[in-house]
Amino acid sequence: MRFNSSVRRLLLAAPLVLIWSIGAAHADDQAAPRRIQEEIWALPLPLPMFAYLVRPVGDGPFPFVIMNHGVSLNPTDRSFFPLVEFRDAAKWFAKQGYLVVAPVGTGYGASAIDIPERGIYGPFFSKVGKCTNPNFRDAGLAVAQVDLWIISYMIAEKRVLPDGVIVVGQSAGGWASIALSSLNPPQVKAIITFAAGRGGRVGGKPNNNCAPDRLVETTEEFGRTSRVPMLWIYIENDTFFGPDLSKRMHQAFTAAGGRAEYHLMPPFGNEGHYFIGSPDAIPIWSPLVTGFLAALK
Questions:
Q1: Is 211 exposed, middle or buried (0-12, 13-18, 19+ CB in 10 A)?
Q2: How many angstroms separate the Cα of 69 from the Cα of each of 15, 215, 217, 223?
Q3: pTM assigned to the model
Q4: What distance in Å separates the CA atoms of residue 112 and residue 76, rounded to the nearest whole number?
Q5: Residue 92 is part of which domain span?
Q6: DSSP H helices in the chain
Q7: Which of helix, strand or coil describes residue 204?
Q8: CATH of the domain at 71
Q9: What angle do CA 240, 284, 228 make, to 5 degrees?
Q10: Per-residue pLDDT for the chain (297 aa), expressed as one digit of tens each?
């Protein structure tokens, strides 16, 4: 996709304008132990996209966290997708000293329109195909490629440290993070997933998965080359990727050579799949994350 110079200049300038307008609203916040500011960026990637960014106040460079959101296969649902799914979790990382980027994937918000019968196609690229023959591998690697673009861009901007990157993902975003681990990017220090997987709740039915054996096989494939330390967090009452399936995935991944620490948390709320999105969950998962990252130092 090519853009003329005026559009590219606008994309490059947009973060600077929005940094000031949103950052100013947080300038007098003295209550938090570490002052942070929230920003909206337009990222001039090969597939341009918006991103929510939160970071400590100051010039940096900071250690870097990317947060990958989940997916909806319904264009209408994607059109109402929030700018950030895990705001409280992202702010927690920022208060630990990280600059956090949570990109909004292409094909969400205003770009979600997708009416093939009228010749209108949106830029959504994370479909797995039909359940009779799903392609979980390429759907994960497509989003992993976006992460690589973001890492390169933020390092080039000198906003973040050039190594020690942490990637966090939920649901399909967690699956993309597992896919990313199979590439072993040298900048990435650790990957943390919450309720990772693809093909959950087919037809809206709890615990009805699309080709679960294929999902396990693809997880094993990623594990053959993955060597990035990982923390996998699942919840007992996740009706997208239940305990039996997540344990099978972990067993396949680690048996193939992948490095992943697995934790199954007690039931949370009515649906454990959205665990990371709740501020009430932070005291539950943050000690796991803190301990995991401390062990890597």
A1: buried
A2: 21, 19, 23, 22
A3: 0.85
A4: 7
A5: 5-295
A6: 5-23, 75-79, 87-95, 136-156, 172-181, 212-225, 243-255, 282-295
A7: helix
A8: 3.40.50.1820
A9: 70
A10: 333 333 333 344 344 434 433 343 444 444 447 899 999 999 999 988 889 999 999 988 999 999 998 776 555 565 555 566 789 999 999 999 999 999 986 655 655 566 667 665 566 567 788 999 999 999 999 999 999 999 999 999 999 999 999 999 999 999 999 999 999 999 999 999 999 999 998 888 999 999 999 999 999 999 999 999 999 999 999 999 999 999 999 999 999 999 999 999 999 999 999 999 999 999 999 999 999 999 998
Q: Is 129 left (phi over 0), alpha (psi -120 to 50) or beta?
A: left
Q: How far apart are CA 292 and CA 297, in angstroms?
A: 9
Residue 177 tokens, joined:
């993070």
* Cβ contact 39:23 at 8 Å: yes
| Per-residue tokens: 6 | 């005026």
**Structure-token match 């454990």, residue found:** 272
Residue 136 identity: F
- Number of domains observed in the structure of the chain: 1
Taking Cα atoms as reference points, which of 103, 106, 81, 87 lies closest to residue 38? 87
